[in-house]
Fold these 2 entries.
Entry 1:
Amino acid sequence: MWPEFWLAFALATALLVVPGALLLVALGARPSVALGSSPLASVVLYGVMGILLAALGVSASTPLMVVPPLLVAAALLAWRLRSSQRPASPGVAQRHELAAMGACVLAGIAVTALVLVANLPGPDAFIQAWDNVAHFNMVRSMEQSRVWSTLSVTYYPGDAAAIDPLVSASHYYPEGWHLIAVMLVDALGVSVTCAANAVNAVACAVVMPAGVYLMLLRVFGREPRVAALGALVCLAFPSIPWNLMPRWTLYPNLFSFALLPTVIASFMGIAARGVDLRARVISGAIFVVGGAALYLAQPNSVFSAAVFLAPWCGWRIFEWRRGQGERRRRATVWVALWAVFVVALWVVMLNLPFLAGVVGYYWPPVTSFQNAVDGVFGLSFGAGPPRYALRLLVIVGFVSACRTARLRWLVVPFSFSALAFVVAGGIDTPLKALLAGFWYTDPYRMAAMAALFAVPLAALGLYEFVRCGHRLLASRPRADALVSPVLIAVFAVGLYLPALLYRLGVPASPYPDNFYALAQEMAEKNDGSRRMGYDDEKIAFVERALEVTGPDAVVLNQPYDGSVYAYGVNGMNVYWRYMSGYGASDEDGLETEASRILRTRLAAGLAGTDPLAWQAIEESGAEYVLVLDRDQEEMAAAFKPYVDADWAGFLALDDSNPGVEVVLAEGDMRLYRIV
């Protein structure tokens, strides 16, 4: 099983890197930029291919998605190699960049293996959460329908549309993450959940470290060593990418945040100093492609990029005006005008009609104001104990940035995001929409953004420690040579040892570091034997039931007994696949009359005493009924939308009910055949 996971990890890496890298090298990007930016180009290529194949009515497959972009990239590269624009061999600086990026990725793989993979009880493990119902259903639907267009997303593909209980046409959804997952399922035959884990691991281990390296090269152009040190700290924050898995399964947002640093780097490359026109054009092209990639992954990351880049643009305006000979005060006025423009544009965007559903989404406070503030200063963002070693690095980096004119702008993105987190997570105020509206006022997304924008500060802090060590030992060459590796090793231990201690079974100390708690939460929430809802026992029963029903037979189910996952995780053709929208929670009136009748009068319809209910059963084409649980208290605890009155038709059903026969039975679990 684990070899399959690592094969999926390797294929996902290749899918994200190879087509995009070939295309960018063919367009003239230098090797490190091409490799680091390749996921942006690859995601857009796959998005375009998915839409094109769907428009042509061609069934999508991994080869059809990959081969055409590869051929185009290879043709462009071959043309360039034969022309006068033949790319030069990488110079010493470029080879150093490639080596440093490779070290960043290796470090990322090691940390991801420790924090994520080692805490999965198996490659098919998954976390039971609201969003995962959607993620798994979408991947399964794409795999079955062979329609991989981001414009045509549905839980009920093909003939299954006839049983959709919440009538809705296929629609747009940002499925960049889902595209990579379904390509793994199609190419390797791995489970949907294994593919999900592999894509998440690649985003954490490969995409994010490489992107952070490119971003920090732009931020700290005069100190390239800081960029390499960023690889050590970029995965040390609980909020990004780790808490986007066990605490709130925001996989598309995790993927888009992993892509975000590269988009930021490409924009900074457009206006970088000492760069020729050709390099600026390439950076501009990557930025445009990157914007499309973020739109395909999770559009709110576009606003995250703006939060980081707006202060940088303000600094570049200041530098530009000073370079024109203006006095500091007059240059500052230009920056103030830029700030006014940014705020005005922000307010206008908040009031655009097509964003109303996002901006108007309300999140109640998830913690107290004091806990939210403590979470910022502890860098846990309210998700457990502080990160002691990391806090030290960020404080030193924050102070260093404030003291350095060209880096002072770095404190603004982190400060804004931290403030937005406190408001979104710890205060009940209309300011939520103003500061965090573009992110659904979700404190977890704000925490992830704040953590990502703290990475440059932490890298700068580590660099300051290394530089101080070199100064202190400058007169002792032998000792001075050991400063960097020793200090890096010390902080690496301080940052990641807690997660290793949990894996080794060492009890938590009286003052545990957040990474210990994170590793524990990751392991416990992925443990199917401890899961309340769709546990390992129910999954095994559904697998046995599938041997009887096959993947095509319609199975009536009560989703809150855990079977809401049966389609996405196992591929069973169950009737109810949504987490909410039935009965009391059907606020928009989307539920069909047939669904209402079946939910509330199923037992009577099967018994033949309710003709209308029996007609609904016949029209659904259902052949089986699945029951995984009868404990109403457990269902209400595991699934908050559950209301027992909404499922009276299932509550009244038992083995003695006329119209059904028991096919499989284990404890309270049943598979009935409709007779």
Entry 2:
Amino acid sequence: MNATIFMIYCIAFVGGAYASTIPNFIGVGLVLILGGIGAYALPKYWKDSPPFYIYLVAAAIATFACLYVVVRTPAPSSTDISQFAPMRGAVVRGVIENSPSRTRSDRVRFNLGVQEFKKSRREPNFVPASGSLYVTVPLLEGTGRRRGDQIEITGNVYQPSGASNPGGFDFRQFLARQGIFAGMTGQSIKPEISPPRFGEWWITSRIIQAHVTGAGMPEGALLSSLVLGGRAVDLPPEVRDTFVKAGLAAMLAASGFHVSIILATALAVVGEGNPKKRMIVGICSLLGYAILTGGSPSIIRATIMGVGGLVGLAYEKKIRPLAGLAGAAALLLLWQPLWIYDLGYQFSFLATLGLMVSASAVEQKLQWMPPRLAGAMSVPIAAVMWTLPLQLYVFGRISIYCILANVLTTPIISFCIIGGVLSGLAGMVFLPLGAGLTWLLDFPLWLTITLAEWTNSLPGAITNTGAIELWQVLSAYGIFLLIWLYPKLAKWWIPAGVLVSLLVFAPGAIARANLFQVTLLATSQVPAMVIQNQGQTVLINSGSSQDVQFTVFPYLQKSGINGLEVAIATSSQPNFVEGWQALRREGIGIKEFKPAFGDRQTPAYQLVEQAL
């Protein structure tokens, strides 16, 4: 099988998996129709096209992938804990399945693999059960817990709720895609059995301890996150938000960028010599890093491609990067088909594809710059170009200065990652030595945080553009693919960029300029209402800070609203100040604030006025 046919089959598998997300088996029908059209048309118009039967096989593979995802989608069994929800004061025993992390409301969350339960402490016997629970517990109860701990937890078991507002977060669907169909608000935890304190957990905790001891907080936690990724490290939410808003979220999630640095460092230590020895050392470093970081889709993708590249170099085989990327995409979905919904999986492959097919072309267009600066600019430009349509489709938000932030911080972060790996390894042997080496990285880490904060402080740094439609996403990627597949069109990259910009931004701007709409949002306490009239917006009540985080701001974000002409408060409930403060922290400007519960001299109004 040659590389072209292999790529066709892999792309067919990935496309079929995506088609499964279309309900009522419409995706299967589309796969068969497109497969038939391809089998008929491509051999006629593609000079080096494989025979028509190859496309028929590809259509069959795509159909299999579509059905495969449907079959592998989890559903609750008869003994799943969700079948007994809701329960108040239930007692559940099980094993912590992932690394606990802190939420924005200062609670600790983790997934619990259920073994048995009883509906209340008064019941004498436990009942066997299965499935997983999404658990949140008070900070003191969750501190010190780790993956593998067997615990007994008391609290309330509930059924997750779906999206109750336009553009809102569908918590039920989010958990269901992880095979979780119930949640639990825990009150107290009783430890049962803890796993041995060695192996992967010991290595990870030792590295984090060396980093935090040497650099303190939040710099030490940031270094651990840069080295191990967000899944292995509980980074403070405020630091994570700073990097996400600056367009540096990929730096905190272990990805191909981190893998390339780890691999380059390992091979540099080995030095030139026997290619097979370098291959073995490289593969071991990649696999070890994938285990330590928790095996996210982006890490596994980079690991597969890295292993393939090392094997090819060791045995002097020609490497086809695009074929390797397509093969990794299909292999990951074959292993875990639900990763088709994972944004990390989607962004990782799109960014890598953008670097492969567009980075060199972008660099050529930047020849008027100094060579090193052109090379540094081309990488984030290519990555942003290929991920922007999906980002707008999912979030409806863009970081205007993300390319600048990446250019400024990438050299510093690369240095910190190498230094963090070395200090972590030293800390595993002798903790004070690792902490001492980490101390040398304190200034670069502080500078990285400062640059991210400075980027976010620039005018219009975070802009809500509004969520775009699926046809806009497909049109944008269709244009990108045409320019890539037909090199003669490469000279039209500027008009193509303008066209893509018009496709993704103009329809929403025109719609908002002519829109009159009143939306009553489902908030927890005081009702919130958004009034939009030809580009101007009025918000009546913000609700609590959690209402802003989960309801009000997501709606404003996906509606493309960056500021309020008028904000009206009809209630002076104790926590209403926090809601308005949370809205301002998210970058929503407020031109005029009006209280409807009293005059401007009331203490409640003055609190809000000071906050805004």
